[in-house]
Amino acid sequence: MSVYAKAADILDRLERNEAAVKTLIYNSGFRNIKQLYALVCNTLKYSDVLEEVISGTSLMKEKKVKMNIVKVLVYDHLFGRGLKCGGGWKNLIMKHHVRLQASLAKLKVKRKVCQNEDLLQKSVSENQGRPLPRYARVNTIKTTVEDAIDYLKRDGFTYQGQAKSLEDLGQLSGKNFCSDLHLPDLLVFSSNTDLHAHFLYQAGHIILQDKASCLPAYLLSPPPGAHVIDACAAPGNKTSHLAARMSNRGKLFAFDLDPKRLSTMSTLLLRAGVTCQELAHMDFLKVNPQDPKYSQVEYILLDPSCSGSGIVGRLNELTDNPASSSEERLQALARFQQLCLAHALRFPCLKRLVYSTCSLHSQENEDVVAACMQQHEKSFRLVALLPEWPERGRVPLTQCLRASQSKMLTNGFFVAMLEKKDSEEKAQTHGLICSPASVEKRKMDTGNTVSKKRRRK
Ligand SMILES: C[S@@+](CC[C@H](N)C(=O)[O-])C[C@H]1O[C@@H](n2cnc3c(N)ncnc32)[C@H](O)[C@@H]1O
Question: Of 27, 33, 178, 438, whose CB count within 10 A is highest?
Fold first, then answer.
């Protein structure tokens, strides 16, 4: 039986509640379990998207076709690796190819997204448990926080002032909104607020960005006029945030390997009024740190590809499978992340670097940073970040920050900041690091073993 027939059969059985997905797959007797697992799980994740796309065509009016076989075929055709079959099924899909593409494009316009993945996240997150508040970062290149608040008030929203606790964020309802308690340019709305059609978003005055993903540029905090690298930049929310921190002055070199994501990024930066960027379709690992072009680069933001396990609504129970977060895959990602981090530290004038992921796995977070620090501890220190942020990196790396849905009402996230030891400009000057007293207190609270070792020395 082909993988498509097998996957459709498993979807039928799931609908009949015959067993859990993993059980059905492992008991299927199919030779390539990994391939089958990926196809079934991805079809499930895209299920409502697929149904809507298919309903925009006359595919289901064809004789003897059933929904689940059509779903797996359309999944692979539109979102997967392309159909790996011939004969009747391929002919069927190809006959409806143009309609399918048109229906997909229509759905993207309707949901106001550019990427297939965004379609997925939106559809999945809408069906998930406790919803997160909605965050909007005020784009200070185009407006001020005060003007954005005034505009929203005139538009029927009720401003509640600055939040005093995380509970204030979780309790927002209706058209109430507030300023965030940690990040100064961030406004917080109730979970059912959709600002995609709002003038402030359409005009680039606000950027709809999860709170945790605002941390890297906020913490790196390059001053106006600085030379900065955004190493893995697309689709560019953090790039536009960096530009705002730089008051749109200086040089912002942004690299990405994916041309489609880069083109989305150009649109996003244009809307945000960013002009200090220089985008390059390039492998960051091949960017030469000795190139005179980068001789003044003092700040690097490194937000490399990761497992994405922190994204709320990714159906973690499904993605926790051999195809997506196997130890093998995590190790490959961690190797790539380590290479990027080591490469970034080769830029001769680097003063400060922020490393971030939207992963929950310590293999991609603390382990990557700890391995790098072992190699570079003579020249770089790990900066202890935001004393008021309660969720910390896992011991011993409590200088770093973590964020999670349950504790911080954000997507799962990790941030570390490395600073050159002889750097004249200290993060302290930006008020972004812990005072010595609060670091000491946290060391005592967490039993920071690194600090203990240092003390022993
Ligand atoms: C987590 S995403 C970055 C998100 C982005 N920082 C933002 O906030 O919008 C990781 C990006 O790294 C890019 N990437 C992966 N490998 C790369 C490499 N070797 N060089 C440059 N970019 C790379 C991917 O195409 C992807 O767009």
Answer: 178
Report how many domains make up the chain: 3
User: How high is the ipTM of this complex?
Assistant: 0.99
Q: Do 224 and 249 contact (CB within 8 A), yes or no? A: yes
In this structure, the answer to whether residues 106 and 185 fall within a common structural domain is no
Output the CA–CA distances (angstroms, integers) from residue 431 to 12, 130, 219, 419, in the order listed.
57, 33, 10, 15
Residues with CB under 6 A from ligand 1: 213, 232-238, 255-258, 261, 283-285, 303-305
In the residue annotation, 358 being an active-site residue is answered as yes
User: Per-residue confidence at 393, pLDDT binned at 50, 70, 90?
Assistant: very high
Of 214, 229, 255, 256, the one to substitute when testing ligand 1's pocket (max ligand atoms within 8 A of C-beta) is: 256
Identify whether the C-beta of residue 94 lies closer than 8 Å to the C-beta of residue 100. Answer: no
Partners of 283 in the β-ladder: none
Catalytic residue among 41, 358, 372, 400: 358
